[in-house]
Write a structure and sequence with these properties.
- This protein is α+β, with helices and mostly antiparallel strands and 442 residues long.
- It folds into 3 domains: 14-190, Sensor histidine kinase RisS, periplasmic domain (Beta-Lactamase), CATH 3.30.450; 197-293, Helix Hairpins (Orthogonal Bundle), CATH 1.10.287; 295-440, Heat Shock Protein 90.
- The protein has helices at residues 3-12, 17-69, 75-82, 103-116, 162-196, 213-260, 267-292, 303-316, 335-353, 400-403, 408-418, and strands spanning 87-91, 123-126, 134-139, 145-150, 299-302, 321-323, 330-333, 356-362, 367-373, 422-427, 433-440.
- It has a 5-stranded mixed beta sheet. A 4-stranded antiparallel beta sheet has the order 1-4-3-2.
- α2 (17-69) runs parallel beside α4 (103-116), α6 packs antiparallel against α7 and α9 packs antiparallel against α11.
- The chain is rod-shaped.
- 17% of the residues are buried.
Length: 442
Amino acid sequence: MNAASHKRSFRLWPRTLRAGLFVILLAGLIIAHVMSFTVLFFERYASAKSVMFNTLENDIATSIAVLDRLPAAERPAWLDRLSRDNYGFVLGQGTQGNPPLDPAAKEISTNIQRAMGPQYPVRVETIPGTRRRLQAHLTLGDGAPLTIDVYPEDVMPLANWLPFVLAAQLALLLLCSWFAVRQAVRPLVNLAAAADTLDPNRNTPRLSETGPQEVAYAATAFNAMRDRIAQYLVERVQILAAISHDLQTPITRMRLRAEMADDFTDREKLIQDLGQIENLVKEGVAYARSAHGNVEKMTRVDLASFIESLVYDYRDTGKNVKASEVNVVAITTRPQTLRRILTNLVDNALKFGDSAEIEIQRLADDRVTIKVLDRGPGIPEEQLDAVLKPFVRLETSRNRDTGGTGLGLAIAQQLAVSINGSLTLKNRDTGGLIAEISIKHC
């Protein structure tokens, strides 16, 4: 088999585990059913043929004995009594035919000759015609010719209802195969869905640990893994919080000493560096907490008033931030988390574009999009996804004033997921960046 034919045969095979198991199970059941039906059919065929030939031999032998003992004048009256559906008796030479050629005719001829025995020599011939017909020619004891007219029939004809029974059995096989495959694959589907939506910080239902032993064991192992991941996340936040707390004291002490020391050349640079270190520690802890989740309760929020309040806060500090007019949209969300997301995005827009615009759009699929637009340089298309990861900065000078810590967008992304939303970035056609948050409004 060459590579092309192998690839073609592989493409014909079902791609899903459910379909593959269904094909294997159904094919095995059908083959087993056909084999069982075939064996049963031939066994019954052999039994029916044996009974038919034994009956034929006994009936013919008895009939010939009766006719041979009757006076010649009484024989015609007995012909109809001794005849059957598939054979009869004719007084005379009968019709000239040909020697039997097919196996069935030869087998019938052999059985007739065996029934007559050596007392009545028999010559069996096949009679041409539209209907299958044999004639056995013999001579009775008084020299009178006798012909046995045989019309062979199927040994075991199929009943008219048999195809319907076979169709019903096939339908039952299909149903049982589908149900068996569904029961076998459903735990895998549930496990894959749970793994795909794995988030130890969300209050999602745990996998059911009931069912077959193997399924229950896999569910128990998955739930244990989920608990371990949640514990690792808690420990990470605790470690970062401890590091932050321990670093605050020496950083503050170093800042005070630098401010109280006599003027020297690098004093301002030292104070600036200490501030950047402190800011980096705070951002790291903020990212860890955003990844770990948010314990803030869900609240009904008037989104238009919420955005207006945020814009006024920025304007009070002299920042160029504005929002488009929208109809009142009420959403259920975590307001402080949403405010933190928008603050990060607006700060990012102000840093690179000196201004920010906020737009709200209500979609038909029960979702609301909040867009933060700027007039900055934008982001290369191939790096739009990368900048949402922690510690990724497009500015390569390592300057914290221009490049930041590389955590602002990552924190916004994590927080958006925690409120069942999503954050996407794309460049504006007219220049600048669009940061779009998509969340449900009901």
